[in-house]
Amino acid sequence: MEITSIVALIIAAALLFYIVGIYNRLVSLKNRNENAFAQIEVQLKRRHDLIPNLVETARGYLKHERETLEAVTRARNIAINDLKAAASNPASASAIDNLGRAESALTGALGRFNAVMEAYPDLKADQNMMALNEELSSTENKVAFARQAFNDCVTSYNIYKQRFPPVLLAGFFGHRADGRLLEFADSETIQAAPRIEF
Predict the structure, then answer these.
(1) Burial 72-106 (b: 16+ CB within 10 A, else e)
(2) What local confidence, expressed as pLDDT, does residue 60 receive?
(3) pTM for the complete prediction?
(4) Which CATH number fits domain 19-190: 1.10.10.10, 1.20.1440.20, 2.60.200.30, 1.10.274.10?
(5) What confidence score (pLDDT) does residue 186 get?
(6) Where do runs of H (alpha helix) occur along 60-165?
(7) What is the rounded average pLDDT of the residues 2-21?
(8) Does residue 109 contact residue 71 with C-beta atoms inside 8 Å?
(9) What ranges do the domains of the chain cover?
């Protein structure tokens, strides 16, 4: 009788430790996910902060292109609001989707801005504009790397939650919804400027 009790106690302890391990792994993956989003947030804020300087530098040259400048500013403001919403709840699929759409729209507006800028050689040669474009390009690369790291974390988190046996316990521990990948529209397509040949 004692051996049966000891074996049952050992099995119960092993099961408890296994469940605690699943809980700790879920918490760890969730925190990595949130940290990865925080890295995207830093880079997107930097991108958003550069845009007013870009617009202000171009304003003197692009007097007849007010619509283009306003479109960039509008897209930036929408992206800032959607970033705040996503930052408050990175696990929200709709917030991540809205952020992806807003950032794609901003990228499109910047692509149109760059296409217009091509018609103004003095603006392209302006030292401030060149420095801002270089900084923006560097920030875009950092955003891409941060987004890839975030998507990798989300994928790992989702895979772990969907595997057996964690799938049985994830909902019970508050890890119900699967994370959403942050996707932007293809920047190559958005930023493609029309070619003019003489």
Answers:
(1) beebbebbbebbebbbeebbbeebbbbbbbbbbbb
(2) 79
(3) 0.79
(4) 1.20.1440.20
(5) 60
(6) 66-88, 93-117, 121-125, 127-162
(7) 94
(8) yes
(9) 19-190
